[in-house]
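User: Here's a protein and a ligand ((R)-mevalonate). What would the complex look like?
Assistant: Let me lay out the input and then the predicted complex.
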Amino acid sequence: MSTFSAPAKIILFGEHAVVYGYPAIAVPFSSLRATATLKPNARHESGLFITADDPNIKLQLNDQNLSHPLIFMAHALLKAVDCDTPPNVTVALNSHIPIASGLGSGAAIAAVLGRALYAAINHPLSDAELNQIVFEIEKQHHGTPSGIDNTVIVHEQAVYFVRDQPIQPVEVHQPVHLLVADTGEQSPTRLAVGDVRKLYDSNPEKTTIVFQEIGRLVEHARQILKHGPVADLGPLMVENHRLLDELTVSSPSLDHLVSAAINAGALGAKLSGGGRGGNMIALVTPATAAEVEKALLTVGAVRVHHTVVDDTHS
Ligand code: MEV
């Protein structure tokens, strides 16, 4: 039995604008993971089976159930390496990453399913090759993804990312303490990305100005991450959140969590990922983390994680 794993991801700055060629910064969220374990099939069963605990499912890859997202992924992953005969194996998936919540659950599941299937058919791939395949699968789900989610997740590396360009590492001068709080509202990235596209099509000049401002914030944030002081990221997060709100991708619950975090002493806060629900992040210090976490839970966050971005994650 072999187990493969991939992390969730957090976008620190630059979501949505990154789809239009502006830079963004994202980091792996390594304590929240998806795993895939290869197991022998049950006796008398032959073919490829995919199981998951939550929801409890057992699916077999065949032509009839290609509309199921996991079967679709498995089919696409095998097709990408010209494999016509699915392996006789069971892949047991397990993910702690909430779905449709801005943390890259889809890309993480595709990455671990890919790693497991390619091990089962003895077709080793580099991370760069797997990343490209997962990106193609993301396109089927999101329409026009930038590729940032799959890149951070497959490489498990903090990145300064510009669409269609080689990834660049992010240097982190001082640990960045973040709380990641979930609104509990699922929101498929595809819908938010589609609505920003409509906004852009209806008013390209105005929307481009917002993207450019976000791009400038990202450059500034990159310098602060490199040289410090980390507290200076706070106002940039607040401004990034305001610009995302202008792009219509915030929501009352996200705004509520952002305000609660700041009122409780966070240095800054913003939505993270596609928005309209899902998760937000708050910049804290070891001294303020507990107070901010309490405030987030009090105003309705369904879960709050504490994570630290430092050079070991970049
Ligand atoms: C989603 O995690 C980030 C977005 O910018 C979409 C993308 O870059 O593909 C909203």
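Summary: The pocket of (R)-mevalonate is lined by residues 11, 15-16, 18-19, 102, 142, 145-146, 148-149, 189, 193, 273-274 (CB under 6 Å).
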